[in-house]
């Protein structure tokens, strides 16, 4: 990895800003849920924020991404408008899916965010199809498939990687290996230690990186994205990470090995990156505090607007579900 491209100072700060938005937004969501103000299923991405932040600095607005229920971080890093996101979480008409999708179905096609899915493994074939569309329209777009370690054992992983490799599609498969699939530890479901070695079976490059390290994640993503844009085909990136809040809100993690959380939280990527920015003179303590305050203020506005908006009318129940009769 010593030959990886490295993020320059401005890019590193951009990665921190994206990751901080994800972290603070996650903390606010949890607070609102605990206060009973936001009622929804919530799969926190806290702990995994560096992965999409370091990847999306190399993406353009019209590149495609697909993600899963634990994908708020992927969407925010790509630039999902915060107001529309909060409105969707609160089930309001001003949400990106008119309040009918909620956290598990966030989309924003105008910004290339094509699907958030609750069906494990389904982000991969959709992203592969979008990769094919991108190849056909010749606009040099790439398509990113985010999925978990559990999803790497689903049949669609095989089908998608094989087709993407065969047709040299511009797809970046990002397996966010957070060590658990629901309540099952990675080591109890998978014999091999590095999922990236599976890439060889399809004829594409595969790499395992520390997804919590902005240098490694940025470098691996940049190489894969450049390769996809150059028409050389897909890459599998296994980004090692850890989920800090259990599978979903309310999961106390009794099935986890004692000490797992504590060990992972000691390696929380956020304070590590923050300290590094100051130590390397990339940003002062005051500048970072100002960034964090501004993000909080942005969340305040998004949240207040979402709560003030209306719920969809009952007539919306069947709209966008069935084809409408053309008069
Ligand atoms: C096809 C399918 N099978 C099973 C489930 C139930 N399920 C929901 S999340 C999950 C675990 C997936 O784990 P992983 O892919 O590692 O993603 P993570 O939640 O860790 O981000 C399972 C089995 C589902 N939603 N869809
Ligand atoms: Mg997992």
What does this structure look like?
With 327 residues, the chain is an alpha/beta fold. It has one domain: Thiamin diphosphate (ThDP)-binding fold, Pyr/PP domains (Rossmann fold, 3-Layer(aba) Sandwich), CATH 3.40.50. 42% of the residues lie in helices and 12% in strands. It is built from 11 helices and 8 strands. The strands form 2 sheets. It has a 6-stranded parallel beta sheet, sandwiched between helices. Strands 5-6 form a two-stranded antiparallel sheet. β7 (206-210), α8 and β8 form a beta-alpha-beta unit. α2 (50-56) crosses α8 (214-229). The longest helix is centred in the N-terminal third of the chain and has 26 residues, at 9-34. The radius of gyration is 19 Å and the shape is globular. The chain starts with 8 loop residues before the first helix and ends in a 19-residue tail after the last helix. The model has no long low-confidence stretch (mean pLDDT 96). It binds thiamine diphosphate (TPP) and magnesium ion (MG). Residues 70, 118-121, 148-151, 178, 180-182 line the site of thiamine diphosphate.
Which features would summarize this protein structure in a list?
single chain, 327 residues, alpha/beta, Rossmann fold, six-stranded parallel β-sheet, two-stranded antiparallel ribbon, binds thiamine diphosphate, binds magnesium ion
Give the name of the CATH superfamily.
Thiamin diphosphate (ThDP)-binding fold, Pyr/PP domains
Helix percentage: 40-55%
Strand content: 5-15%
- The radius of gyration computed from the alpha-carbon positions, rounded to a whole number of angstroms, is 19 Å
| Major beta sheet, strand line-up | 2-1-3-4-8-7
CATH topology: Rossmann fold
Termini separation comes to 61 Å
Task: Name the average pLDDT.
Answer: 96
Number of helices: 11
CATH architecture: 3-Layer(aba) Sandwich
The CATH class, by name, is Alpha Beta
Number of domains: 1
